[in-house]
UniProtKB/TrEMBL annotation:
Residues 596-807 form the PPM-type phosphatase domain. Keywords: Hydrolase, Membrane, Transmembrane, Transmembrane helix. This is Stage II sporulation protein E. GO terms for molecular function: protein serine/threonine phosphatase activity. The chain crosses the membrane at residues 44-72, 84-117, 129-149, 156-176, 196-215, 227-252, 258-275, 282-299, 305-322. PROSITE patterns: PPM_2 (PS51746).
Length: 839
């Protein structure tokens, strides 16, 4: 049994391999055939030859051939290497035609070439004069032939020659625009309406070259014209289909007056086919069939209805056999089609990916630069041992090398000599001088030049300490630069990811929202959903609403909240933003917590300008930053210092760099820039609005206080003010805030106002705990008032700033409004939207 199973498995595997091999060969053969066809038609000029042959046979108004010279001139201008093929094909078409205009074609081509050569001599850009050259060649040739054959030129001959030359003039401009479309020399840009009509005129003109090709009563040009209408109605819809039908019918009616009713048939069929395009090919074909039956019975009578239906049947058969890839290729050039939109999206995606790729390369570059600044350091003990060895080598070079007892000390008693000198180095490094008498006695009993050696150790140790401090500063600078580069790298990496995020289609949800709001009586234009992710919902819409009564905030936002099962708030409102008077509204998810702040401040001595500054910054939609900066001293200089510190910090934080790196960067800038003793403190609190988690970074600032009910806690950290030293480690204190907490932040002038109190922080806690209200502005005002009144004379000896922030759970002002009045419909609608959003 096992053998049979294994044999069956081997047979199945071999069959699959053979199938895959056959499929691969078919794919290779298909690609080779495609490449060969492309080479044959486009590069070798077979398509030019076919079009030229049919245009050589074409005639309108029973005696005019205005297609020959425009086609030759256009090919001569655009594809000169195929001009000979085009000329030969045109002549062949005239030979096998019923109009016998080969003499006109030969002479007209020759005169055109002579005129073009003359224009090239006198004009810098003879291509711009191409229609005029064709007009001249046509009218001269036609009138010359008439004069030679009849000996005179009648008014009728002059009129018809002028009409033919005028048509040639117009067709030249049309062919110049449309020939690149059929020769594959056009890029992927969408076609303008004028270019589409030019292309249809060219194709219809080519179809007139099939006049006379018929089987019984079935005319080939009618089938081809209806096939053309089917393609464009299926690709472009009713507007394009009817336009193609009118233009094609007009050209055919000029070629043959008997085909005048074809204009109505083709236009009506294009309209019906375009309206039924949602039924795919069968729907478009059915539209053509209905249009054929109606117009055929009405316009041409019932005698030839069977021939008309047969012509339509041939067109439908050709349409059904047309490869889907051909239709998709045509649709890419028609504005408004799905294929064109996808082509545009693909182009935009390429641009976006290229931009994101460059940003990612910059991010990688900054990451590499950051790693290059991170020097691999040895362990402290190993580094210290190496440094001591180098120091002692310098000492021995200056002292022991010239001593006669060198061999005894460093060969016979190496360990004792090395240990004694190392102990002296360590002692001098710690105490600054050699003050241990025991070590001095031991060394004097061991060395013949004790004072000289001790002096050398003193000098080398001092240099070692200076070099060590310099090296530490360099390493700190390298570490700061590495952190800054890493921060920039992360920001750019996140930005690259944001660039590559695509707006996901939410057509079902958008339609459902539109229907729901319109069903509730709202005049909604359109809705765009940019994100439906929980907690990050972004919705924009155009709507006609009453702004004075807050209709968007009070009605639309609660309706959306009921739909998405999440609190939605109005983010931005732009009244009468659109030309039709509609307003632009932006809605988004509400954060779990909201911040409400109050500020009280006063300058030293009651002056107008305070050295303190504060800032409340909302970083994106997730974090809220509160900062107080106190410039050194008072007055204008302190004000400028603190305001610039906050401005720098705000810019760096808003760029997305982490707060500790941001503070180090600002400190580095300030320390490098300062030429005077001007420093500033910084008190920064970063609060996450989703979970109320807070980070405190205090740079030379006073403690902050958190009031939770009747309990007051202190938040403090020890860091020097900004700008004093280039490098320092930022101590971060983290606290979990809760609903209703009050965060009190203040400058040093507040705590230092009560000089007679030893424990000022406890004094401030008591003031805060005695305040009954929880309104942030009232709390700030009460604290400032009590601090000022705590001293005799109410003297303000320093700038004072108090910022009080209350953390609150977000409670929407308006409850959600159900969309549907009936409970059953309401539940059904909710279930549908929930399934549609995938939540």
């Amino acid at each position: 049994m096992k053998t049979e199973k294994s044999n069956g498995t081997l047979l199945a595997t071999g069959a699959f391999e053979r199938i895959n091999h056959v499929q691969a060969r078919l794919q290779v053969s298909g690609q080779a055939l495609k490449n060969m066809s492309k080479t044959l038609f486009f590069e070798w000029g077979l398509l030019i030859a076919l079009v030229g042959f049919l245009l050589g046979r074409a005639m309108i108004l029973a005696e005019l051939t205005p297609f020959i010279l425009p086609f030759l001139a256009s090919v001569f201008l655009l594809r000169r290497n195929h001009a000979l093929i085009a000329g030969a094909a045109l002549l062949a078409g005239t030979v096998f035609s019923y109009h016998g205009e080969i003499i006109f074609a030969l002479i007209g081509m020759a005169i055109f070439l002579l005129l073009y050569r003359g224009a090239k001599t006198f004009l810098d850009q003879p291509g711009k004069a191409l229609p005029y050259l064709v007009f001249g060649a046509s009218i001269v040739t036609r009138l010359g032939l008439v004069f030679v054959t009849t000996g005179t030129i009648s008014q009728y001959a002059l009129m018809m020659a002028t009409v033919e030359a005028g048509l040639s003039f117009i067709l030249t401009m049309i062919f110049v625009q449309s020939i690149p479309l059929i020769t594959g020399k056009r890029g992927g840009q969408a076609l303008r309406n004028e270019e589409i009509i030019c292309l249809i005129i060219l194709l219809a003109s080519v179809m007139t070259g099939t006049i006379g090709w018929a089987l019984n009563d079935v005319v080939m040009q009618h089938s081809l014209a209806r096939y053309l209408v089917l393609i464009f109605a299926f690709v472009g819809g009713a507007a394009i289909g009817s336009t193609v039908g009118v233009v094609t019918g007009l050209i055919l009616s000029l070629a043959s007056v008997a085909s005048l009713y074809q204009m109505s048939l083709l236009a009506f069929a294009g309209l019906l086919g375009g309206l039924l395009k949602e039924g795919n090919r069968i729907g478009v074909a059915f539209g053509l069939l209905v249009g054929t039956l109606l117009i055929g019975l009405y316009g041409d009578g019932g005698g030839s209805i069977f021939a008309t239906v047969a012509e339509t049947g041939i067109a439908i058969a050709l349409f059904l056999l047309t490869p889907r890839s051909w239709l998709r290729s045509i649709a890419k050039y028609i504005p408004g089609t799905v294929e064109h939109a996808q082509e545009q999206q693909q182009y935009l995606r390429k641009v976006r990916d290229a931009t994101a790729g460059r940003v990612e390369r910059f991010s990688s570059l900054f990451q590499t630069l950051s790693n290059s600044f991170k020097v691999q350091q040895k362990s402290d003990e190993e580094q210290h041992s190496n440094d001591v060895d180098v120091l002692l080598s310098h000492v021995t070079e200056k002292t022991c090398q010239t001593c006669m007892m060198k061999e005894k000390c460093w060969v016979q008693n190496f360990n004792q000599t090395y240990d004694s000198m190392a102990k002296m180095v360590e002692h001098i490094e710690v105490n600054g001088t050699m003050s241990d008498p025991k070590l001095q006695r031991q060394w004097r009993s061991h060395c013949r030049k004790p004072d000289q050696v001790i002096a050398a150790i003193h000098m080398e140790t001092n240099q070692y300490r200076a070099n060590k401090e310099l090296k530490r500063q360099v390493q700190e600078s390298q570490r700061l630069v590495a952190d800054q580069l890493l921060g920039v790298s992360r920001v750019m990496g996140d930005f690259a990811k944001e660039i590559q995020k695509e707006k996901q289609p939410h057509l079902i949800q958008e339609e459902y929202m539109v229907d729901a709001l319109r069903g509730a009586g709202m005049d909604v234009g359109h809705i765009d959903i940019y994100s439906i992710e929980s907690g990050r919902i972004e919705i924009e819409m155009s709507v006609q609403c009453d702004h004075d009564n807050g209709e968007a905030e009070k009605i639309i936002a609660p309706m959306l909240s009921d739909l998405v099962k999440e609190t939605i708030i109005l983010k931005r409102e732009e009244p009468q933003f659109y030309a039709n008077g509609y307003s632009h509204l932006s809605f988004g998810s509400a954060q779990a917590f909201v911040m409400e702040s109050g500020v009280a401040k006063v300058a030293k001595g009651g002056e107008w300008l305070s050295g303190d500054n504060y800032s409340m910054i909302e970083l994106n939609s997730d974090k809220y930053a509160i900062a107080i900066s106190d410039g050194m001293g008072n007055g204008e200089k302190a004000y400028l210092e603190s305001s610039e510190t906050l401005a720098l910090l705000q810019k760096v934080l808003q760029s997305g760099i982490e707060e500790t790196v941001a503070i180090k960067s600002v400190n580095s800038i300030l320390s490098l820039r300062n030429t005077e003793e001007m420093f500033s403190t910084l008190d920064l609190a970063m609060i996450d609005m989703n979970d109320a988690h807070a980070k405190f970074l205090k740079i030379g600032s006073t403690p902050s206080f958190i009031k939770r009910g009747n309990r007051v806690s202190k938040v403090e950290a020890g860091n020097l003010p900004m700008g004093i030293i280039p490098e320092f480690e930022v101590e971060v204190v983290q606290e979990q805030l809760r609903d209703g907490d009050l965060l009190i932040m203040c400058s040093d002038g507040v705590l230092e106002a009560k000089r007679s109190v030893e424990n000022r922080e406890q004094w401030m806690k008591r003031i805060i705990s005695e305040i009954a209200t929880d309104d942030p502005q009232e709390v700030a005002d009460i604290i400032l008032e009590r601090v000022i009144r705590s001293e005799e004379g109410n003297i303000i000896e320093d700038d004072m700033t108090i910022v009080v922030t209350q953390i609150k759970l977000h409670k929407p002002k308006w409850t959600s409004i159900p969309i549907h009045p009936k409970v059953q419909k309401q539940k059904k609608g909710r279930t549908f939207f929930k399934q549609a959003t995938g939540t």
